[in-house]
Write a structure and sequence with these properties.
The chain is α+β, with helices and mostly antiparallel strands and 231 residues long. 48% of the residues lie in helices and 19% in strands. The strands form two sheets. It has a five-stranded mixed sheet.
């Protein structure tokens, strides 16, 4: 259970939750069987640098490669963690990763330069989550102190299962829609007709996937509001 801080103001007591950080650990799947390993490592380093740049406002401690095939980082809140994971996987295609996300407190001082040399609940939970993901052969697992964690993990499994049914073009359509592109712009980008884009959206599980992701994002928004609540 997270620690709390109690404040007394004009004879009223307010309770605020201790800072809840979001630790993310990712590991390359089947790294030993990778071809062109040197190129993959170069791509890996570039992807981590891109994430640190694009999500700099969310990052509490910069992402870095830790064990050769593994990387980790720390976010101030879990608000945009799923978008970050999706963006990272997009940058690393076709190399796939397993992810573990832990939400909780830190028991050591925050190292803002890089996510190393720190310890605490968020890292314990992230490590537990990625170990569980590997054992259960899942792409992503969350671990945090809330009854809704089971629902969150169920949503992630559903989105991943639907995503595996999409072909390469359909997956690209999902990625471009996530960036806010219109059907016309997507068609031009992929060099297909607007009708083909519309058909892909209407005849696959793309809309259902997007609704599930939206529900996930709304949950984390409410979660952040809850843990930061005073009163």
């Amino acid at each position: 259970m997270s620690e709390s801080v109690y404040l007394s103001v004009t004879n009223k007591t307010y309770r605020t939750m201790k800072q809840q950080y979001c630790a993310i650990i990712g590991d390359i799947n089947k790294s030993r069987s990778l071809q062109r390993r040197a190129q993959t490592q170069k791509k890996f380093k570039k992807a981590v640098a891109t994430i640190n740049k694009e999500f700099k406002d969310d990052i509490a401690s910069k992402f870095l490669i830790t064990l050769g095939d593994e990387f980790q980082g720390l976010l101030r809140t879990p608000l945009h963690n799923y978008q970050l994971i999706c963006r990272f996987q997009e940058l690393m295609e076709p190399v796939s990763f397993t992810f573990g996300v832990g939400i909780g407190t830190l028991s050591t001082p925050l190292n803002t330069k890089e996510a190393i040399g720190m310890d605490g609940e968020c890292f314990y939970r992230a490590r537990n989550a990625i170990q569980r993901a590997k054992k259960e052969k899942k792409k992503l697992v969350y671990d945090f102190d809330d009854p809704a964690v089971m629902l969150v993990n169920a949503i992630v499994v559903s989105v991943d299962a639907h995503g595996k049914l999409l072909n390469t073009t359909q997956q690209k359509i999902v990625q471009l829609r996530n960036k806010g592109m219109t059907q016309r712009a997507i068609a031009q980008k992929l060099r297909i007709t607007k009708q083909a884009v519309s058909k892909a959206i209407s005849t696959t599980m793309i809309k259902e996937m997007e609704e599930s992701v939206e529900a996930l994002e709304q949950f984390f928004h409410r979660y952040v509001m809850k843990v930061n609540h005073i009163g």
